[in-house]
Amino acid sequence: MRKALRLSGGWGQQIVFLGPCLLFFLVIVVTPFILGFYYSSTDWNGLDLDKAVWTGSANWQRIWHDDKFWTSLLFTLRFTVISVVFANVLALALAFMMMAALKTKKILRTVFFMPNVIGGILLGYIWQFIFTKGFATIGELSGIPFFKLPWLGTPGTGFWGLVIVFVWQTAGYMMVIYIASLAGVPKDLVEAAQIDGARAPQLFRSVYLPLIMPAITICLFLTTSNAFKMFDLNLSLTKGGPGTSTQSLAYNIYAEALVNNRYGLGTAKALLFFVAVSLITVTQVLITKRKEVQA
Predict the structure, then answer these.
(1) Is there a domain that residue 86 lies in?
(2) Across the 295 residues of the chain, what is the mean pLDDT of every consecutive 10-residue run?
(3) CA-to-CA separations, 87 to 81, 84, 167, 220, 222, in angstroms, rounded
(4) Are residues 79 and 17 located together in one domain of the fold?
């Protein structure tokens, strides 16, 4: 009897503490996700439920012939690959620098982490001012061609402008994760490798890299998913322009559903977007997890 009461009491506590969160999760996340499968096969403007007309596979056929969608997908893939590489390399370099005996390393850690605290929309507008006004002024005063570029005015410079801001925002957070991982590397193991004559590249490849592989898995997962879902910087910096040359996949879905009022087609694109993000991130985690096992 006492055992049954203890079990019922345990379940009661779990329901009390987890029940509200589970309810909100079901209502806000799971239910709209399930409804998305229905609306992805309808022609609906997103406002009047009575006007949601079932169209079957029509939306999927439109996506297949939608050149803007596939262009946005290719742009997002290129942006993700380049941003993930630059963000993680910079974060790891900063982490090694912050592990050195610097008097100002606590202040520097805060400074490097600060961009991650600023919201993406606000950060985008700040950098929009920097690109259009700040860089132009520096270019006029110094005559350096780099600062005279039309950073948000061409497809090429617009792409690299987005990469710069994303890396600047993301690297500080990844740096903190790498610092925590580097702090767990045994010092005697590093000293032993140095005594055996291991140089910096060998030390990094044979000692540090295998031991910080769990942190690399986490950082690659976070940067990959965030880069693939990049929307706020795209909205505030370039709005997908010039034209649609810098339009990310998330922005393409937003424009389709909320600007063009084709909510059914936008939902279908969002489901494909979900599948793409899931496949890419799961594949990345599986690959890097195998490296952890080998280490």
Answers:
(1) yes
(2) 51 77 87 86 78 82 89 93 95 89 81 84 88 87 85 88 93 92 84 79 83 90 91 88 87 88 88 89 85 59
(3) 10, 5, 5, 9, 11
(4) no
